[in-house]
Target: Rubredoxin-like domain-containing protein
Amino acid sequence: MNNLAFHRLSYGIYVLTTQLDGKPFGCIINTAFQITSAPPRIAVSCNKDNYTHDKISNAKMFALSVLTEESSQDLIGTFGYNSGRDIDKFKSYEFTQGDKLSLPLFTDESIATFECKLVESLEVGTHTIFIGEVIDCNVLSNSSNEMTYKYFHEVRKAVAPKNAPTYIEVEKNRDLYECSLCKYVYDEDVPFDELPDDWVCPVCGATKDLFEKT
Amino acid sequence: MNNLAFHRLSYGIYVLTTQLDGKPFGCIINTAFQITSAPPRIAVSCNKDNYTHDKISNAKMFALSVLTEESSQDLIGTFGYNSGRDIDKFKSYEFTQGDKLSLPLFTDESIATFECKLVESLEVGTHTIFIGEVIDCNVLSNSSNEMTYKYFHEVRKAVAPKNAPTYIEVEKNRDLYECSLCKYVYDEDVPFDELPDDWVCPVCGATKDLFEKT
Model:
């Protein structure tokens, strides 16, 4: 059994959002697929640990912003490597509200958006599959490419956070490294020394040499 | 609402297989994602109309062969645009049996393979989401690229068959065209005249000029 096979499944990169009591919530996911076309329904997978998870369960709706290859590393870092329990993720980013469900959408960073009503949830261990009926969806650009998970890893040199479905457990043998600019602590399973030279901080985009051993 | 947004979700191309009473069954899917890592579980979506669908429900196991960019058009055509009710899909193709569950795997055409025990099924309208615990998985090549749905459409010039989750209903206004070589009838919703000049038969790879109006 070679767990690297899991990296051969193809994914995009999305901001999964919802809104509850007037407040926006969101996180990065890479797992989304269409299930049926009439009515149009999509499935997404979300870690139960994510702050956004319970908000979707309660709000009974969610939105997807399909990021482009030009999407900022900063947005992905903030929404993918931080928790809404600790910071206000939306503070520094422009977002709009969808026409149908008023859900937060990152139209400036996206190639397409979806607004969905939650129709079913299926718990599978650490994660929940949310199934949504698509109430509205739009294409925002025909000139950009959607960001794929492969592009995110190979071109942006990013690594999966621990609560991603695609996170792979490997033997731990490493020191922790902290970004001297934004204080993000690199604590993933690819040893810091083995990250490529052009790897950058997933939160602020700082180069590798700006990290310090903690 | 612009349904073309659904084409901005990222997918791979897979042969989904199973085995029941000693016979292999299989079809092409583009919907697969990892859900959890401990235990490793993946989800796939399959149209209930597919012959393979009920066989998976009964066999309680399934396998995925992750196709490469070099995978033959012929294999994809046979497994994606035909039914096992009508033809013996496996007759003309080399396949192996997985080490753990003896499931059919297309190792020559794949970059990775997975063998899964079915642990849960969730019906969603026309489709079922099958959730499998991965019993074995392997990487077969580090030099090839996995075929993405985008590559399949943009480079191979293919169109989604009607029972694919990503099939989009559009207004019908067209004649039917038949491949003069393999007799495949083109009956999809993109009008035949609007297919690009380098489009080829999804079954046998014949060029567009070899099609005749029926």
User: Anything to note?
Assistant: Chain A has two domains: 3-139, 170-214. DSSP finds three helices and twelve strands in chain A.
